[in-house]
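In the previous chapter we treated chains in isolation. Here, by contrast, the input contains two separate entities that must be folded as one system, with a combined length of 594 residues.
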Amino acid sequence: MSVETKVQGRVTSHGGVRALYSGNARSVVGRGLLATRSTNWIIVLTGVFEPIFYLLALGIGLGSYIGGGVVDAHGNCIPYAAYIAPALLAVSAMNGAIYDSTWNVFFKMHFGKLYQGMLATRLGPLDVALGEISLALLRGAAYGTTFLLVMQVLGLTLSWTAILALPALLLIAFGFASLGMGITSYLKSFQQMDWITFALLPMFLFSATFYPLSVYPAPIQWVVQALPLWHGVELVRGLTTGALTPAMIVHVLYFLVMVAVGLVFTTRRLRALFLD
Amino acid sequence: MSEPSARLDNVPAPVISATALTKTYKDMNAVDGISFEVAPGESFGLLGPNGAGKSTTMRMVGAVSTRTSGDLTILGMDPNAHGPEIRAQLGVVPQQDNLDTELRVRDNLIVYGRYFGLPRAEVAKRADELLEFAQLADRSKAKIDDLSGGMKRRLTIARALINEPRILLLDEPTTGLDPQARHILWDRLFRLKELGTTLVLTTHYMDEAEQLCDRLVVVDKGRIMAEGAPAALIREHSSREVLEVRFGSDRNAGAAAALAGIGDRLEVLPDRILVYSSNGEEALVEVTRRGLAPITSLVRRSSLEDVFLRLTGRTLIE
């Protein structure tokens, strides 16, 4: 009896969704909202301003020295501020998702012992992963929506398709949140957490954020095109400027794959860390 | 073991059944083939020193750690396949408090209840009852960091009861608490026991095991050394009384030789000598008759500490 039961047990324990998921990720989201409301909503609020400051300094300030504007994907000339604003919009969604899924997750994992408590209940690792990632996604979406409103007020949305930037922001935030949480689960010290910041800064500066990709030689273009933020920037830029291209489908697919990989990755890690 | 038929007739099916349960980490067997059963409503203890494998066993029973080999059934289910379903019916009090410090006292209970998928109204009702039970009703809005160690522990127990568990798992429930806080906690746990909750607890305090456990296993180095009711274990493995005599550390070994033959058995510890005897006072009379003058002497009843010493040659708290 024991051999058969054991083999069966092993298979279910590693592959069965029932052992990983109880369909209750919303209780994890509920907990996160309650905790945010009662402790750190001011810190959450400060994150909104970073991309707005960039927009004011570079788009409006520096942009006033850049005459002639920039040529978009359809060959139209658009003002510099309208060119970088969608990039900063994608960055704001990324930042919101990254803050929550890296630093907050790191703290809960190592100091708050929050996941240990959650996984002693009916919740499975997929509930926890989905819930925490959704929270990060909500923060990314909130930052993005605020920024989109600022763009609208400043007259930097050039097309009605800008409204589609909202679901695009959700997708971008979802991608960064799920991959961010998976990566964070491997990191053990504050020093290692700084690597995330270190990796994000060049991606932020060089992903065709402030000037077109065409300034780079071909090999560097390939590197930039492999990075997630470039896909986010191009997707959002197409939507807010109205210069739609078929390549945008590729950008969407890129993020769908990122979401799937991140979710699987995070769930497996939570299982390995807390349900060994 | 000897009468399986009697078990079938009279005793309800065990809520926990472990057979040759083993957990191996990279280089060592944390749990090395232990077998035990826990009956519904029973209060079952795992007594042993730190590092004996008690917590690892508790984690496997709590369906948060996968066994390396052996069989384990919790409430009739295999934790490998039914983790969430099993955990839905357990209450867990971990060794170190893991209360949610970002939430207030009452919210800790509410949120935890929601993890089980319970309706909000039901959870709110139970939270208020449990705050009464844990004597924390006046602290419901307090921050976790402002609670004392004993209060945090009581809140953790209240939290573990929010899903009305069939089994309550307590890992070292009173370690690190002052004596008064321990007694309050024991009183609460005893009340749960009276209400019929199945308790499974680990401890390295013999007095705790004696107070709370109907039956216990003595665990050392991942193996079960003995099993039985506290009183039966003491009867079986120790004498009725113990005489403790101290001669000072330099004279200890010499005095031990002179004590030979008094009582059933001697145990020489670095700081004192234990004389196991059915009558401690008589043993003390004999000690003084031999012209030995201990600095201090104490006659007491045998405890689980003596059982552990007898079985392993070591003391529980080192």
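Confidence is low (pLDDT under 50) at residues 1-7 of chain B. Residues 239-301 of chain B form a domain with the Alpha-Beta Plaits fold (CATH 3.30.70). Compare these points with the single-chain example from earlier in the chapter.
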